[in-house]
Design brief:
four-stranded antiparallel sheet; about 260 residues; Rossmann fold; 2 domains; six-stranded mixed sheet; 10 strands; alpha/beta
């Protein structure tokens, strides 16, 4: 039987020439939850994500996924295990259509990703699934649009569709609503809630309204260390968290109740 926690870190630490960016982090992500990682700028959130996805090796500590130690695995190995990450900046192909972007992600399952000499019609079998995924993120009307022409919020929705095409068990979302207007934030928040069905999401997010509305659990980092962990109401009332955000995001933290 799968364990209660899909992802666990123990004493995870990353030092850069004496600077401790991630400091003895013990994190447990419960299967099926939306788990948010928050903290002031420079708290170590992106470095922590880079450790999870193997873009950086840890100085010490361990990372376990589904009860298996993946601390020293390579990015491609953990992707095959079902861990897929989106980035702060939009990572779609601008001069392909919206449908082609999703179809490209679906090709991975066929094992034909690098068969450039194959005729395009060999990929048509993927169109139905690609259109289903586009419908999931409300992009069905944009299938034939060049991606470069999409508004920013729609590009982030397309990223969610391409991420889902890889059938991840664990989605790591890095600032999914960054740089968005209110309407796009609301749309993408609802999409995250929708795509979380049947999978686990760990997200770095700065928008407290987003976090308070969809996260089952929140972990707060400051200077690379965990200062609070729990449901939103408990974390938002924690004096250490209020102090960490004081003068910058404290009003946002309190205003999201």
């Amino acid at each position: 039987m799968p364990g209660e926690f899909i992802l666990e870190t123990k004493d995870l630490t990353k030092e850069f020439k004496g600077f401790v960016a991630v400091n003895n982090v013990d994190l447990k992500v419960r299967r099926g939850h939306i788990h948010a990682l928050i903290g002031p700028n420079g708290a170590g959130k992106t470095t922590f994500f880079n450790l999870l996805t193997k873009f950086l090796p840890p100085t010490r500590g361990t990372i376990s996924y589904d009860g298996i130690d993946i601390t020293h695995e390579k990015p491609a190995q953990i992707a095959r295990r079902g861990i897929v990450r989106s980035f702060q900046i939009s990572a779609v192909f601008p001069h392909m259509t919206v449908l082609e972007n999703v179809r490209g992600a679906l090709q991975r399952e066929l094992g034909t990703s690098f068969h450039f000499w194959k005729p395009e019609k060999s990929l048509f079998d993927l169109h139905d699934r690609a259109r289903q995924l586009l419908a999931t993120v409300d992009l069905q009307d944009f299938a034939d649009e060049l991606t470069v022409n999409l508004p920013y919020g729609r590009k982030r929705a397309l990223e969610l569709a391409t991420t889902m095409a890889l059938e991840p068990d664990l989605m790591l979302l890095d600032e999914p609503t960054q740089g968005m207007g209110h309407e796009d934030v609301h749309r993408v928040t609802e999409l995250i809630k929708k795509v979380s069905a049947g999978r686990t999401i760990l997200m770095v997010e700065h928008n407290m309204n987003v976090v308070s509305s969809i996260a089952d659990r929140i972990t707060v980092l400051q200077r690379g260390a965990i200062i609070a962990d729990g449901p939103y109401a408990e974390v938002a009332a924690n004096p250490l968290v209020i102090e960490a955000y004081m003068g910058t995001s404290d009003a946002a933290l309190q205003g999201a109740h």
